[in-house]
Amino acid sequence: MTITYTPTNPVWCSGCGHYGVKGALERAFDVLGIQPCETMLLTGIGCSGSIQNNVNAYGYHSMHGRVLPTATGASIANPDLTVIAAGGDGDGYAIGAGHLVHAFKRNANVLYILMNNAVYGLTKGQDSPTSGSFGQAIADAPIDGIAMGLSIPGTTFLARGFIRQADQLNSLMVQALEHVRAKKGFAFLEVLSPCVTYHDTYPDWNARFYDLDADREYTAEDRGAAFVKTLALNEEGKIPTGMIYHEDRPCFGADWLENDSSPAQLSAHDPHNHRDELQELMGRYLM
Ligand code: SF4
Ligand code: MG
Fold first, then answer.
1. What's the burial of 104, exposed, middle or buried (CB within 10 Å: 0-12/13-18/19+)?
2. What is the greatest pairwise CA distance in the chain?
3. Could you tell me if 87 and 46 are in contact, meaning their C-beta atoms sit under 8 angstroms apart?
4. pLDDT tens-digit series, residues 152-174
5. Domains in the chain, please, with CATH?
6. CB of 13 closer than 6 angstroms to any ligand 1 atom
7. 129 lines ligand 1 (CB under 6 A)
């Protein structure tokens, strides 16, 4: 039996940056010949989260802020899947921030697309964890996910795209998918994806993005230099885009993925294979 799935049309506002993310992802699937049957797209909660309804792939809409542990589980359970997690700045940098730190550290084989619009769009325009970085009159300091990633030694792929820089975003999306398809681990791609309805940052970001890919003196292979450059640009009011840091290192679970013992190892942890032990354990606490 052949099962076909027709993605629904997005419900985003006209002009929302997320259309550009969807387009870049689908173009990257085409470029790399990635089939829907070998792809899983998991999302968090927010306007960005609905992208999994609109892309032809297996989909899962997880709880608020919990997309990364869910995606990590999917990637470990089926190493043949290309696993993509997606969400917004509220989902990933607020309630999901602890999971992001550990995803950086763990280097699980997942592409994480974080659509940053510096606002909570779905709930109608509250300040988000990144709002302060973009000139809004709030007192608390903004979170910079790229700088956070650079500070954690396990990170292997850190990049930032901007919807208005379509060629660069398309290229970064392809590189991020290649990283995951080669089982090199966690690829973090933040995309500046403005919310035209509640906080239109197009003019501000147009004026302030700085294309590191075009900077001939910059190398994305040096973590220390990347940190210094990123922070210096931030202090100048610039927003670095492009490939910011890249490193080759085995992904989380590489030893399982490399040999045939993976199913056996997972089977050892399957609760169905330990029913008697679990019942005995539960019995002890029910007495
Ligand atoms: Fe996009 Fe903002 Fe509309 Fe949500 S509210 S769909 S983020 S423009
Ligand atoms: Mg947001």
1. buried
2. 70
3. yes
4. 998 999 999 999 999 999 999 99
5. 18-252 (3.40.50.970), 263-287 (no CATH)
6. yes
7. no
